[in-house]
Amino acid sequence: MKKLVSFFLWFCAATFLAQICIIGLAAFKGNVDRNTISQVIGLLNGIDIQGERLKKALISSRAVPTPTYQDVLEQKTDALLQLDSRSLSLENYKRQLDDRQRELQKQIKDFDQRRTDYLAANDKSQKNAKAELLREVQIIVESLAPEEAKAQLSLKLEKGEKGDVVAIIRGMAADKKKKILGEFTSKEDQEKLSEILSEIQRIDEKAPDIAGATPGKP
Predict the structure, then answer these.
(1) Among 10, 14, 73, 210, which is most buried by a count of CB atoms within 10 Å?
(2) pLDDT for the residue numbered 207
(3) If phi over 0 gives left and psi between -120 and 50 gives alpha, with beta otherwise, what is residue 46?
(4) Residue ranges per domain, the chain?
(5) CB contact set of 180 (below 8 Å; sequence gap of 6+)
């Protein structure tokens, strides 16, 4: 701490002595006046008494050219061109988004159509497969004796396969159908037969025979 105080005191003394020496030298040359003393004190304390820094700043500002009307007009024109360019870019981007959206909508529509076609084709295929299977069962039932055929049809009715029984009977030849249905003699059988015939009549009024043959009358 003592060293710091000593250094500060030494610096102050040196500054004071420098001022005394410079003022003495100026007095020896006959240049001592109020302005000279002020300049010496200001320079020793880092103050630009003559305003050299201010002068340099003014000269530097004068060196920068003042923009003309044409320069300002060109700057505004460039700014407008840049704005127009950004606007065109945004419009182009929006147009691309709209095109992409339409393309996606078309793809979705095409997919939905393919899905609908597939489901329809699959449903048709399943119906055809079932019709073919029933046709085979029909041929087997027709090959049986009337009482055996009636027994097989009764078993299907007990299983709740009334629709299959109706389809099988509808596809039979008239003579086979008459013989098999003639086996339904009991009261319970007659009730079942009545339901079957009513169903056959209802279907015949709406659609052709699944086997392509005209059903015979029992």
Answers:
(1) 210
(2) 63
(3) left
(4) 2-63, 134-206
(5) 141, 146, 149, 150, 153, 169, 172
The tokens 């000593």 sit on which residue? 6
Alpha helices in the chain (DSSP H): 2-29, 34-44, 52-63, 69-143, 146-158, 162-171, 174-181, 187-206
Structure tokens at 204: 């015949």
| This prediction's pTM | 0.41
Other beta carbons less than 10 A from residue 97's beta carbon: 10
User: Side chain identity at 184, as an amino acid letter?
Assistant: F
Residue 168 CA to residue 54 CA, distance in Å, equals 116
Q: What is the pLDDT of residues 159-210, one digit of tens each?
A: 888 888 888 888 888 888 888 888 888 888 888 888 888 888 888 877 654 4
